[in-house]
Amino acid sequence: MLDTGYLYAKDKNRIFINTCLGCIGACSYCYLPKIGYRNNQQSSKIRTAKQILDDIKNIGYKVDSDTLITLGCFSECWNEQNKPQTVELIKHFLSQGNQVQLSTKKEIALEEVMHFQELIQYLGQLVIFVSSASVSEWNKFEKNTDNPNNRFKTFNISNKLNIPTVLYMKPILQGITIEDIDLYKQVINAYHVKDVVVGSMYSEQRAEETVHFSDRNQLFYNPVSDEMVIKSSLRGICNVYSRSSQVMQTYKKRFKDFEER
Ligand code: SF4
């Protein structure tokens, strides 16, 4: 087991990597304050990509080509301050053959990710999750994040490059997210979004499943009834998932199946 805050892994299958601990997004539902990190400022120094890779090596954690790399669960990995380190980590792990996922509430421009193309060996080796819990009330619930109208421009990437982007409706805020279902459908149609994750809130309320990026038993998945309604409403329009890891597995399986043919 590996748990330094910056790094977390239960096994060789997946490692969570943060180049800093804390975020400036100030989302009302954010779980960071519940586990001792701040969500209205970065509360730690940024560790460089080199330091992170040295840490992994010195700790003795073995990353093999099947290890899923998940960037930023205790930080916004595309903030100006840590973006350069995120980019270096993506380049490193893509060149090692790893699958890499990142989730963001920032707009990512085409030019910023164009250079990853030459490192990508198959569709879905790098997947970008564009996170949003509300469109119309974004400035109430996701105060210091990018305006969704800008954030959603990130979907242009998958229409131009071999990098899938996913609408990450997470967490579903009961009675709030569902109010924007038509707006989300418009976005899905306008940008030809293929994959959507409809995900649950993490909270301290004890439930069957703990979060995957910590074993401290502090945070649990707490589904709400609107999730089922939203999923039914989106089926037939796009692929609907409950977890980002399911999207990653689907792309990986397609690649493996193609290789075995
Ligand atoms: S962007 Fe994510 S980590 Fe940052 S404040 Fe919002 S929920 Fe928390």
Walk me through this protein's architecture:
There is one protein chain. With 261 residues, the protein is α/β, with parallel strands linked by helices. It has a single domain, classed as Alpha-Beta Barrel (TIM Barrel), CATH 3.20.20. The protein contains nine helices and 13 strands. It has a nine-stranded mixed sheet with strand order 1-2-3-6-7-8-9-10-13, sandwiched between helices. A hairpin with a 3-residue loop joins strand 1 and strand 2. The longest helix is centred in the C-terminal third of the chain and has 17 residues.
Q: Which keywords apply here?
A:
261 residues; alpha/beta; TIM Barrel; 9-stranded mixed beta sheet; two-stranded antiparallel ribbon; 9 helices; 18% strand; globular; binds iron/sulfur cluster
